[in-house]
Amino acid sequence: MSKRHIGFNKPYLTGKETKYILESVETRKISGDGLFTKKCHEFFEKKYGFKKVLLTTSCTDALEMAAILIDTQPGDEVIAQGYTFVSSVNAFVLRGAKIIFCDSETESPNIDVNKIEELITPKTKAIIVVHYAGIAADMDALMKIAGKYNLYIIEDAAHSIDSFYKGRPLGSIGHLAAFSFHETKNVISGEGGMLVINDDKFSGRAEIIREKGTNRSAFFRGEVDKYGWVDIGSSFLPSDILAAFLLRSLRILMTFRKKKTYLELLSQEP
Ligand SMILES: Cc1ncc(COP(=O)(O)O)c(C=O)c1O
Description:
By secondary structure, the chain is an alpha/beta fold. The chain is built from 9 helices and 9 strands. Residues 58-60, 84-85, 87-88, 130, 156, 158, 180, 182, 193 line the site of pyridoxal-5'-phosphate.
């Protein structure tokens, strides 16, 4: 790269990622939902008050889970802002939905809430909202529209870890939300993401969809004596090695934010 160019992104490394990764490897439970995944889940639920979180292999995959959870069908319409990354809408297109693009605000790439109602039809199922570059969309207006027309709000919070709307963490307001821990984001695990479930009715099915359509999570909690195929699904859970990297990355975020309590939470040995 020439000296005249500024690189798009340089991942911030703490130097201790490999220490956490080694610890994960030594647990000999390096598939999904190991010790480090649990610590990340606990962190996100305690720190941001998210009702339920599930680490995923990417934000794209978290959005795919959201599309399945709201039962997206061919012919459904989903409203999304035109200025976003392809993943915001791919998941819904894959399940046969038609994307209706809405204009952005003049001052930001966020969805212009004043232009949404004219796009709603009896086929509209959901609105995908991107908090572009971590700047909050007008969530009060969006939730009001959702209530009026019985629609789901899915927050594409790929850019929005530790960002807030009127004091509430982004990702905690819509029915579902998806975060990214891709190398280009503030908190990273190389590739990685997270689904946040704010509406309880999706919790049980989300676990199943993430685990290849099986009730394996319930089995590991001792709630069923064997697990089987109970629904559609895919393999959306990341290796615990990635969760180890993510936990280290979260620690750095908290250092930046000087949140002592959460620093302590993160520094506890896994
Ligand atoms: C708005 C938005 N949504 C979704 C994604 C996809 O994230 P991931 O790479 O974790 O799948 C991105 C990636 O940059 C994004 O910018």
